[in-house]
Predict the 3D structure of the following.
Amino acid sequence: MAGVKIFDTTLRDGEQSPGVTLIPEEKLAIAKQLAKMKVNVIEAGFPISSDGDFNAVKMVAENVKGVEVAALARCRKSDIDRAWEAVQHAENPRIHVFIASSPIHLEYKLQMSEDEVLNNAVEAVKYAAQYTDNIEFSAEDASRTGTDFLARLFKAVIDVGAKVINIPDTVGYAVPSEFGQLIKDVKEKTPNIDQAEISVHCHNDLGLAVANSLAAIENGASQVEVSVNGIGERAGNAALEEIVMALYTRQDYYNLDITQDTTQIARLSKLVANSTGITLQANKAIVGANAFAHEAGIHQDGVIKERTTYEIMDAKTIGLDHNKLVLGKHSGRHALKDFLEKYDYELDQESFESFFKRFKDLADKKKNVSNADIIALLDNELYDYEKIYEMEYISVLTGKGLLPTATVRLKKEGEIIQSAACNGDGPVDAIFQTINELTGIEDIKLMSYKIDAVTEGKDALGEAFIAAEIDGKIFTGHSSQTDITEASAAAYIEAINKYLVYTKNK
Ligand SMILES: [Zn+2]
């Protein structure tokens, strides 16, 4: 059975979402999770665009195995050189070059003729071919380009070595039957198409990115470009989880082999939401909080009698076996190690010891510890980046008629820095004010602050999530603890640490 290649561009197109800043270590953590899910290609960035992007691509290329890693480049030698420099050490590196092909882009953006665009594309693919034979070529704004020119352009780049030709609906203008027809026409009109793979890259401006991608698959596309949670420029890209679950759930219709590990979806989605600060609408397909919730009594009754009466998917398929109780107070290192192995987490000895201690603390406070609790605790350890500030001590004094006052002691690069006490409008504000004073970073605008319970019950772990604007860029932090003031402070410090790592990288 044939399959469809999943090309994930969360780290490139997704990172172009308004307000998103990811430090290279966050990109690496996301890339590792993508590899666990067994996507086929990870587009890790656009190396010429910034040093941060270059470093991130290099880090992903050097550290993430079992997956192709792509780097984006315009049809320019300097772009291609930089892309190769970043991606060359990947197990299977790919150079992805693009140039616009539609009349509107040619006239206003490029001010080039069709022949000039074609020559440019051919030269770029030839140039990239001296580095690798794994070359993808994209005709930007393809859905608004005539099929005659597309076919001429694709024939020319395939002749000089392009192995994948990508047909993007860059502006999200296409509708499904028309986009499917476009793929079919390009296939028919490009004489050497059997030497290349057809890929599509759909944007969601009309909410049709997934539908258009599926129509393309039915008409001969064998690679789809997607992003986790559908993030990306403007309304975003086709959502990875929706495409994969559509193909999986309707295997009877598409008849395609699914080689991806769907059980990684929930974790991947959460990781991307936490790192980018783009939270999910509750009714988001597959990964929204309500995606598996039933409200109407008649539905609940049906699901209790037989799940498939109202559920077409099993939550377990996407990795939500949340409330299962797994470990308790008496579980030791061995049980915890088994858990980590089962869920494919790798911790070095030092992280394991610190994690074990936190697990014990939690098990002391809660009688039973669930899957979700442990995974939430583990997510605290996820980014292996330089933690410039660490929390040593925190206390908050608050109550009716009291002026909330926080006392915080931090460790900076191993050394304890003076505790300080500040007042605030409320207890959380008091904590943040104190941390601002201790770190000397005063210009922090809190964009979002959220507390959620990880599981049910009054002894549940509290998860604090923060998105803060520092120096015009948005950084996120999150932490799960039994004490929500502690979790809030840790999340706030994480955002500050990421900002410091980011400025250091620049
Ligand atoms: Zn795009």
In short: Residues 389-505 form a domain with the Double Stranded RNA Binding Domain fold (CATH 3.30.160.270).
